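New to this. Please check both lines:
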Amino acid sequence: MKNFRNMVAVVIISMASNFAFSQVKPLDVELTNYQYPYKVYFYNFKSQNNDLKMAYMDVKPKAANGKTILLLHGKNFNGAYWEKTAKDLSDKGFRVIIPDQIGFGKSSKPQNYQFSFSQLADNTKAVLDKLKIDKAIVLGHSMGGMIATRFTLSYPEKVQKLILENPIGLEDYKTFAAYQTIDQAYQSELKNTAETYKNYQLKFYYDNKWKDEYQPWLDLIAGWTLHLDYPKVAWDAALTSDMIYNQPVCYEFKNIKTPTLLIIGTRDRTAIGKDRAPKELQPKMGQYQELGKKTQQQIEGSKLVEIENVGHLPHIEVYDQFWAALYGFIK
């Protein structure tokens, strides 16, 4: 009888899970059928012989304090997940610029493009130049932290302050994990589903505790996997994975002279290529409770705020603690 009840429980859980995933809507390559929280603008330009458009939101303050903040998204995200952060910043008088990087969100997905952090930083600078923004506070999360680092190193005169929220790239993944070709990465990306994405996020982002407020950010990437356009998205995802693996920024933190804040959820264990590393090295990767301190020591005069028992997404998982650290640094 006990075994029967267990079987029934498994079936019910499986049905509930399949129902949840069935609610995910197919999304096209540029998310034209998904509405962002703020008006979306496009910067049209030519790069590497591609005609591209870079989407961005420009959230105006209610009562301007004269400061602009640039929010840079992570690899498995786009600008939409900054919705609450942007609202609160706008309420405090900040102008908020939120781009979707080329290859992400509503921006172009070029299939013949050499992705580099320098190129993405240059694209981002072009948006600021178009908007006649001479200086900004720069906040980067996850992969956005690597872009923010490269942006700050390349254009220090444009960065008033730098905030890195659980950035990846605090270690050199090449020293742990074996190389995979872009073709191999592409085949791996093609296997993604709503379920595999959720399992990954549960493991690295949320410590196996799912909340309703996490669902929108899962749906955005899961929806792509249900659309005929997905191979285009998957190809750019493979190219950007290669960029992350082959273009470490961790050796250059010592060159940052801009006032810097690190916001680190110490439970985070995100690391590119962990599944390709030797078993004995995997537990040593993505140790954010150590990497945050190490990075803070490398950036002269920087400040570290550690948020205990929090994963890769402080601004989603524990927004109030994230906001207190952010606003305390920029107000």
About this structure: The first strand starts at residue 40 and ends at 47. The chain has one domain: 26-330. Residues 48 and 144 are 22 Å apart (CA to CA).
